[in-house]
Automatic annotation (TrEMBL):
Listed EC numbers: 4.6.1.17
Keyword Lyase: yes
Lineage, uppermost ranks: Bacteria, Pseudomonadati, Pseudomonadota, Betaproteobacteria, Burkholderiales
Role played: Catalyzes the conversion of (8S)-3',8-cyclo-7,8-dihydroguanosine 5'-triphosphate to cyclic pyranopterin monophosphate (cPMP).
Protein name: Cyclic pyranopterin monophosphate synthase
Domain spans labelled Molybdopterin cofactor biosynthesis C (MoaC): 22-157
Entries under Pfam families matching the protein: MoaC
């Protein structure tokens, strides 16, 4: 079942006086939580061909980007100031190539059993995976564009399940 959560009227990372704070999740129940995020990097056709051939100067671009995305999920709370550190139970980072648009799409899924969601971890995996592709290919294509990074779905927790339109 998919539910659309109404827009929040108050931002949860600010207290009643407007000061930033880490949200107290101590009273929440532990639940199985899943988040899926995706994003895309567009590039020259020649750059995509280089990635596909596996002959990029720095090595297996998508393999290294996958490991970078997985590593990034484990460091999300070090990068995003008000994120809770989480014990992740699963992280998957996958890439698909679209020759027609000369792009690579990254989809990341993060999971935990805990008191707070894993949307930020999934988003971090996507961003770092795509940034790694940029880093590894920038010598031949500085005009690559990272785009359309977003949460695609989340499951678990008090607010229930949500799927992007």
């Amino acid at each position: 079942m998919t539910s659309k959560t109404p827009p929040a009227t108050n931002l949860t990372h600010f207290d009643s006086t407007g000061q930033a704070h880490m949200v107290d999740v101590g009273g929440k129940d532990d639940t199985h939580r899943i988040a899926v995020a995706s994003g895309c990097i567009r590039m020259k056709a020649e750059t995509l061909a280089l990635i596909q051939s596996g002959t990029a100067k720095k090595g297996d671009v998508l393999g290294i980007a996958r490991i970078a995305g997985i590593m990034a999920t484990k460091r999300t709370s070090d990068l995003i100031p008000l994120c809770h550190p989480l014990a992740l139970t699963r992280v998957a980072v996958d890439f698909s190539i679209d020759e027609g648009t000369s792009s690579v799409t990254c989809v990341a899924q993060a999971e935990t059993v805990g008191k707070t969601g894993v949307e930020m971890e999934a988003l971090t995996a996507v961003q770092i995976g795509l940034l790694t592709i940029y880093d590894m290919c920038k010598a031949v294509d500085r005009g690559m564009v990272i785009t359309d990074v977003r949460v695609m779905e989340k499951r678990g927790g008090k607010s229930g399940d949500w799927v992007a339109d």
